[in-house]
Amino acid sequence: MKKMKQLSSTELRQLFLDFFEEKGHKVERSASLVPVEDPSLLWVNSGVATMKKYFDGTVKPANPRIASSQKSIRTNDIENVGVTARHHTLFEMLGNFSIGDYFKTEGIVWAWEFLTSPDWMDLDPEKLYVTVYPDDEEAYTIWKEEVGLEASHIVKEEGNFWDIGEGPCGPNSEIFYDRGESFNDLPEGHEENYPGGENERWLEIWNLVFSQFNHKPNNVYDPLPNKNIDTGMGLERMLSILQDAPTNFETDLFLPIIEKVEKLSGIKYGETVENKVSFKVIADHVRALAFAISDGALPSNEGRGYVLRRLLRRSVMHGRRLSIEKPFLTECIPVVADIMEEHYPEVKQNSEFISKVILNEEERFLETLAAGLERVNEIIADAKDKKQSTLSGKDVFQLYDTFGFPIELTEEVVSEENLTIDYKEFEEEMAKQRDRARAARQSEGSMAVQSSLLSDLTVQSEFTGYTKDETVSTLVKIIKEESFVETVNSGDNVKLLFEESPFYPEKGGQVGDSGLILDNDSNVLAEVNTVKSGPEGQPVHIVTVRKELTADQDYTLVIDKKRRRLIERNHTATHLLHQALKDVLGDHAKQAGSLVEENHLRFDFTHFGQVTEDELAEMERIVNQKIQENYVVETVETTLAKAKELGAMALFGEKYGEHVRLVMIGNYSKELCGGTHVKATAEIGMFKITSEAGIGAGTRRITALTSEGAYQWMEEQLRILNDASKLMKVQSPKEVPSRIKLLQKELKESNQVNESLHAKLANAQADEVFTNVKTVDSVSFIAEEIKAKDMNQLRQLADKWKQEDYSDVLVLGLKDDEKVNLIVSMNQTAVKKGLKSGDLIKHISPFVNGGGGGRPDFAQAGGKKPEGLKDALSAVTDWIEQKNS
Fold it and tell me: Coiled-coil intervals in this record (predicted)?
């Protein structure tokens, strides 16, 4: 039997990348797990997710051959993690991609070479099987004739067609490794007992997708103008084979974490089946948490933040099963960082911040668990009061969904009380939640339907706008209604490409320029509305034609200079703000998007917790200080490596080529950026933050103004202040604060007098109302409308009633404009007879179109039908009679 090559996870990853680098591929670093400019994805969930812009032709890559090891997160079946051998939330996808370059022959032959060549993986060819789409005779022939695979090792599989909706799609070919009869978990003759079936013996290790069709509307499949290759090999799966591990969890990616948990728990991995699951869940989830938080995602109650919160809480609960009662996940983070350091150094660099976030979340959850236990006990007590032996599935689901309280823990507590759970109702609620989640989650995200119009375009258009505001240039292409034309006339809306252009195309958060296209006599021929980026970064001018334009003619291109200057001031201010943000909040605060227009700037960043007014004021002070110090803004064309040596800040989620543009503002800010900027910071004039707020899970947004916008904003604030001065009849705006304090004091004193008068009035009414006691079946009650200031005074009257013990039951109603307030109170005599305030309030509140609830001895409700108050109070008598009958 052939001895298998022994490789570590680091060696396997590097071997794969080295192989495809030798085949002319550009190795790209893993993208952030948080998708950039792709709202269709909650997480980057595959290698191809980061290649969509290349596959649909939106962007043309510098090298059409790309290879990567992409970290990915999938959370559609979290419950299976730890239970099966290969389910993970975080995993790595090794992939090689061809964007309109090589196709099936190279894709298949190179895959086989990497897997079987002694220079590479050196796997036994006899152990390998492949599946192909039945109609894909080309792939079948390549496997059989080019590779030399026997027909018995090639399986035609109907499901081998990759299609996620409109956009590129095509047949695929999967490669399986035969782990041997000892791994066979199905009886002979079972319909899934074959390479390609759902079984443990034949393990899928690689999927080769041949993207050759455009899936168009109405399910039309046309050949792609540019055919692509997309492959994915699971690092964890392949490693389990090389390290002869029963599951992915017994490899060097997970075992060090499991060993750490053994030390923390004092329990050995594998002592029981349940114990194994807990170790695996913790090892898997802590990796996902470390990587996701490192990439800027933070726990919260929505979106990807909710996913992280759920992963963390599952980990804590499984820790409890291993007798770990205190926060412990932070102690696993250094282990994850050490395992992944060579390819993902950012986890170690950010480990202090990751640990801080996780510890904060663990401590909060432990408090939540305590609250959950209290709520469980309340539900149990309520069931016993009602003499029920089964707990409501809805109540148990609320514990699970709202408190994050696992059903297993609820079962444990409930079983001790000899109660059961309505599992059918619980599952119905779970199903509803899954439906809501599916509805909220956008589709995996079809790519745009590929068009060869721009992707085949070889025009190299030079951007001259860094140094020029206008340029004479030749019009090389006119696009009208997705076709190339030679001439366009007045009224046409078209796209234009020139040999060179001063117009900045929209990218990096900076909006595209606007301006004019002129003839030699400065007559306006077209208005440039905006400019977009072509597949190779060419400025594509979106224009409205005013007079005839013809291809291959020279025209004068003039940007709107005033608008550009305003945009530049705002853009440079975002660089200053980015560094000030880190100075004040810490290095964990990362840019998560920006918008730079002429009127304002918007800056999104990752941060857990609120930003205080003092912190905002300090950021604003720093930026204005740097503006006043008039730093020179210098731009340098250099290599990516050199820019990083100089301390350049790379922006969140951006991909950079070998040659980059470094923007330096003195020694204060150094960022990689392709945008346009001022020459010195004094040109910005003034910087003013106008708002700051949370916009999603762990993401916040600052909106700010500079130069003219900031000046106009300040003028408006001064006008408001002057108007306030006149209304308050003070001589100077400086006196406004002291005048407001005086008015507040006077108002407080007036309110106190008012409160006192209302209290006296209410007490006077109470003396009369509390004597109006009625009795039904030995239960004494008071049910009256009363004139009081608000609900607070109703409660005060209820306290007085309770102290004086006027009756067994009290019901008071208050009309307030279009609203009604009701309170119900019961003494212990009434409660012992089985009467509950909450039940009575639920009976009478519908009369006022309201609802409410409360404890057995006190309840309250609100309503919107004042005319129903009389009927509500009258209904008290009937209710008491029914309860006592």
Answer: 416-443, 740-767
For residues 114 and 120, is the Cβ–Cβ distance under 8 A? yes
**β-strand pairing of 858-863 with 851-854:** antiparallel
Phi-psi region of 704 (alpha: psi -120 to 50; beta: other; left: phi over 0): beta
Q: Which residues contact 733 (CB under 8 A, 6 or more apart)?
A: 718, 721, 722, 724, 725
Average pLDDT over residues 304-322: 87
pLDDT at 439 over 70: no
Average pLDDT, the chain: 87
Q: Is 677 annotated as a binding residue?
A: yes
511-545 pLDDT, tens digit each: 999 999 999 999 999 999 999 988 778 899 999 99
CA 166 to chain centre: 24
Contact 109/147 with Cβ under 8 angstroms?
yes
pLDDT at position 885, please?
67
Mean pLDDT lowest among 438-452, 632-646, 776-790, 852-866: 438-452
Q: Under a CB-based contact definition with an 8 Å cutoff, are residues 280 and 272 in contact?
A: no
Separation CA 322–CA 268 (nearest Å): 10
Q: Residue length, the chain?
A: 885
Query: pLDDT tens, 692-735?
Result: 988 766 788 999 999 999 999 999 998 998 888 888 888 888 88
- Non-local CB neighbours of 495 within 8 Å, separated by 6+ positions: 478, 479, 480, 540, 541, 542, 543
Tell me how many degrees the CA angle 688-694-698 measures, rounded to the nearest 5: 125
Residues 601, 709: Cα–Cα separation, whole Å: 10
pTM (predicted TM-score): 0.69
* Assigned architecture for domain 9-245: 2-Layer Sandwich (3.30)
Structure tokens at 124: 């036994």
Nearest to 312 by CA among 366, 254, 247: 366
- Report the share of the chain in percent with pLDDT over 70: 93
Would the annotation count 571 as a binding residue? yes
The residue type at 125: P
Q: Report whether 578 belongs to an annotated binding site.
A: no
What 3-state DSSP class applies to 122? coil
Give the list of residues 6+ apart from residue 786 with CB closer than 8 angstroms, or none.
762, 765, 766, 769, 794, 797, 812, 813, 814
CB atoms within 10 A of CB 413: 16
Nearest to 16 by CA among 51, 58, 67: 67
**Cα 771 from Cα 765, distance rounded (Å):** 10
- Looking at 63-137, which runs of residues are DSSP E strands? 65-73, 90-99, 128-132
Q: What is the mean pLDDT of residues 753-758?
A: 75
Strands (E), 468-510: 470-480, 483-485, 487-488, 493-498, 500-501
Check the annotation: does 169 bind a ligand: no
Q: What pLDDT score was predicted for residue 629?
A: 96
What are phi and psi for residue 771, nearest 5 degrees? -90, -10
Rounded to whole angstroms, the Cα distance separating 581 from 819 reads: 47
- The CATH number assigned to the domain with range 768-884 reads 3.10.310.40
Euclidean distance between CA atoms 424 and 78, whole angstroms: 21
Residue 339 tokens, joined = 């395992």
User: Where in the chain are the domains?
Assistant: 9-245, 273-384, 457-559, 564-715, 768-884
Amino acid (1-letter code) at residue 612: T
Q: Is pLDDT at 848 greater than 80 in this prediction? A: yes
What percentage of the chain exceeds 90 in pLDDT?
50
Report pLDDT digits (tens) over 188-228.
888 888 888 888 888 999 999 999 888 887 788 888 878 89
For tokens 């005839």, name the residue. Answer: 548
Confidence of residue 444 (pLDDT cuts 50, 70, 90): very low
Average pLDDT over residues 451-458: 60
- Statement: 457-559 belongs to CATH 2.40.30.130: yes
Of 596, 606, 589, nearest in space to 574 by CA: 596
